[in-house]
Amino acid sequence: MHTIEHHKIISDFRLLSGLTVTIEDCANLTKEFQVYGVEDYYISDYKGNSYLTRYVDYFIDAIPCLKYKKNYFIPLIFRDMPDTQKMFRDPYRWEAFFILLDWYLTYNPKKVLVPCSQKKTDIEIVDTAFLIFRLWEIYEGSAFPIANLNNLSEFEKWNNVFHLIDTGKSVTRDKAFDATKVEDLTQLETVITIIKLKYQALLQKQGYQV
């Protein structure tokens, strides 16, 4: 699996430089990700703002997308960053991607769906780049310290400093973790599940049975 460069002139004649995948690789990903709810792949276009361009409105055409659970397109276009390369280096990150996506679609869909001013279908567009960034926050910024916390009280104190739990409804986040809210508790459960995937993969790589 290889990423390829994607260059596109967007709003105000600025150049969007990112990464995408070949059609052949898109077909292979569709087969690999069927277990998570991916049904097919399409070539699509849309106009909207997302994390990909730091929420600047842009038009993207001829981008390969995964169709997810009938109602969503996951565009396979990424920021040219180390966190993107890790998605294709560490297979467990894609399982984590779909786990995190499902949480957002259930509890905070506006945070992960691209507000589109133009698209050809009624299918919602997922903000792929935002989810990959969130995985980077969880894995690179939080996996080790969370693994060393002993209880919910310790996590609340840690989160008040580092703001991992995404409790805000806009781009910004609230500072507080509220243990009485289902959204906060289920998000913490999701984060822990995602972190476990990393350590299970590391143990398997070292020859342990998990």
Q: How would you describe the overall organization of this protein?
A:
This protein has 210 residues and is of the alpha+beta class. Helices cover 42% and strands 23% of the residues. It contains 7 helices and 8 strands. The protein has helices at residues 23-32, 82-89, 92-107, 128-141, 143-147, 152-162, 182-205, and strands at 3-9, 15-21, 38-48, 58-68, 72-75, 77-79, 116-119, 124-125. The strands form 2 sheets. Strands 7-3-4-5-8 form a 5-stranded mixed beta sheet. A 3-stranded antiparallel beta sheet has the order 1-2-6. Helix 3 packs antiparallel against helix 7 (182-205). The radius of gyration is 18 Å and the shape is globular. The relative contact order is 0.12.
Largest sheet: 5 strands, mixed
For the CA atoms, what is the radius of gyration?
Answer: 18 Å
Q: Terminal Cα separation, in Å?
A: 26 Å
Seen as an oligomer or otherwise, the chain set is: single chain
Approximately what portion of the residues adopt beta-strand conformation? 15-25%
Give the structural class. Answer: alpha+beta
Poorly predicted ranges (pLDDT <50, ≥5 residues)? none
Order of strands, main sheet, comes to 7-3-4-5-8
Q: With helices defined by DSSP (H or I, 4 residues minimum), what is the helix count? A: 7
What coarse outline follows from CA principal-axis ratios?
Answer: globular
Helix content: 40-55%
